[in-house]
Amino acid sequence: MPKLEIKNISKTYKKGTVKALDNFSVTLTSGVYGLLGPNGAGKSTLMNIITDNLNSDSGKVLYDGEDIKKLGKGYRSVLGYMPQQQGLYDDFTLNRFLWYMSALKGLKKKEAKEKITSLLKTVNLTNSAHKKLGGFSGGMKQRALIAQALLNDPKILILDEPTAGLDPKERIRIRNFVSEIAEDKIVLISTHVVSDIEFIAKEIVLLKQGKLVSHDTCPNLVGEIENKVVEVEINREELKYFQNNYRVSNLYHNDDKIIVRLVTNNPPKDHKSTIVKPTLEDLYLYVFEQGL
Ligand SMILES: Nc1ncnc2c1ncn2[C@@H]1O[C@H](COP(=O)(O)OP(=O)(O)OP(=O)(O)O)[C@@H](O)[C@H]1O
């Protein structure tokens, strides 16, 4: 079983003024890990360090007990990375793009041909192989980028916001696909979208201002806010007050009343509140919504 140990990683930018990662440690084994955190939490920085595209200021990343810096090429050969940026290869046809990436990854011709044919099928893009990437929809581009990350049959697959900008149908397709291929691989997915990982992740890693908040299975994390999620019926005029004073994770209208869903340690005493089952989205609000 592959093992990736991230040990005491710190990283600053701008001569130390911006702390992107602060003594971050976690150990990953095979399965899907969801990396959750708000904008600027340090997710991309972490992924760039794990993929050896960026040097940390301190700390180490070990793959099966060996420092990735020492493994060098050997590490790259087990790594698949889908970065955030799109549009780099818009003039390439998908086929040319995959051949180009195969060459960069050092695949032999025969190997590349077989792999490209099978991956095009897996990501359902065989019929678009001779079209230019520039004309692809967001979902097609994302699938093309996932395909290139899988060319070398990686043991570690790093996906930086793989569903950004996708419609729900594409999102579900990518999610199911990632879940399918995760067996015997370490898959780390960063996302803002809780539903991308809620049901497929073996563990969720919560990152806040460069620090690890916690990492655990989804049921365990959600269990931490058992009894802290309530639904309360309020009048319209009260909504502003509740929005200013509580973490409101949902609201809906019921005739002339509003039902608000609150994630709170102190449910309102002057209203009847009903305890409801927490979700990962509630936990996200609980951890990342400041000041309430
Ligand atoms: N090249 C850089 N130079 C200076 N500051 C940077 C650089 N890259 C990132 N940062 C800063 O480091 C912090 C972490 O950024 P990072 O991109 O890793 O977060 P993120 O969680 O991936 O955010 P997002 O969800 O918006 O992609 C932020 O404060 C960001 O502004």
Short description:
The protein has 292 residues and is of the alpha/beta class.
Record keyword descriptors for this entry.
292 residues; alpha/beta; Rossmann fold; Alpha-Beta Plaits; 3 domains; 6-stranded mixed beta sheet; 10 helices; globular; binds adenosine-5'-triphosphate
Account of the protein in words:
This protein has 292 residues and is an alpha/beta fold. It has three domains: 4-78 and 154-216, P-loop containing nucleotide triphosphate hydrolases (Rossmann fold, 3-Layer(aba) Sandwich), CATH 3.40.50.300; 93-153; 229-288, Alpha-Beta Plaits (2-Layer Sandwich), CATH 3.30.70. The protein is 31% helix and 30% strand. It has a six-stranded mixed sheet, with helices on both faces. The longest helix has 14 residues, at 109-122. The structure holds adenosine-5'-triphosphate.
Counting helices, strands and paired strands, the structural category is: alpha/beta
CATH class of the largest domain: Alpha Beta
Identify the CATH homologous superfamily of the largest domain: P-loop containing nucleotide triphosphate hydrolases
Number of helices: 10
Across the major sheet, the strand order is: 6-7-8-3-9-10
The rough form would be described as: globular
Per-chain topology:
Blueprint: E1 4-13, E2 18-28, E3 31-36, H1 43-50, E4 58-63, E5 66-67, H2 68-71, H3 73-76, E6 79-82, H4 94-104, H5 109-122, H6 138-150, E7 156-160, H7 168-181, E8 186-191, E9 203-208, E10 211-216, H8 218-223, E11 229-235, H9 239-245, E12 247-254, E13 257-263, E14 273-275, H10 280-288
Parallel strand pairs: 3-8, 3-9, 6-7, 7-8
Antiparallel strand pairs: 1-2, 1-4, 4-5, 9-10, 11-13, 11-14, 12-13
Helix pairs in contact: 4-5
The protein binds adenosine-5'-triphosphate.
